[in-house]
Amino acid sequence: MKQLTGFVEGYGTKACVIADALGRATTFRIVPGQVHELPQTVPLLDSLPGVPMWAVGDRGYTSHAFREHV
């Protein structure tokens, strides 16, 4: 059933994106909306040609394993 907002009920998707300093996407992964983004971050960071000087993320990325990787 279509809602008044124009969205269809059900699961959505999330885009896990790495962007450059100008905000342009350099690499990304699309995952189901009900999946956490954290498992996607390590492969995305590993795909970079070098080590980033800084990273920005929300509180969902504060696991010990992720901090160890960074």
Description:
By secondary structure, the chain is α+β, with helices and mostly antiparallel strands. It has one domain (13-69). It is built from 2 helices and 2 strands, in the order E-E-H-H. It has helices at residues 38-46, 64-69; strands spanning 13-19, 25-32. The protein has a two-stranded antiparallel ribbon with strand order 1-2. The longest helix is centred in the middle third of the chain and has 9 residues, at 38-46. The model has no long low-confidence stretch (mean pLDDT 80).
What is the compact description of this entry?
This protein is α+β, with helices and mostly antiparallel strands and 70 residues long.
List the main descriptive attributes of the protein structure presented here.
globular, two-stranded antiparallel sheet, 2 helices, 70 residues, single chain, alpha+beta
The structural class is alpha+beta
Work out the oligomeric state of the chains in this entry.
single chain
Main β-sheet description:
2 strands, antiparallel
Question: Which stretches of 5+ consecutive residues score pLDDT under 50?
Answer: none
Listing every helix as H and every strand as E from the N terminus to the C terminus, the arrangement reads EEHH
Binned strand content: 15-25%
Number of strands: 2
Spatial sequence of strands, sheet with the most strands: 1-2
Q: Name the helicity range.
A: 10-25%
Return Rg in Å: 15 Å
What is the first-to-last residue Cα distance? Answer: 43 Å
Mean pLDDT: 80
Structurally, the number of domains stands at 1
What is the approximate shape? globular
The number of helices is 2
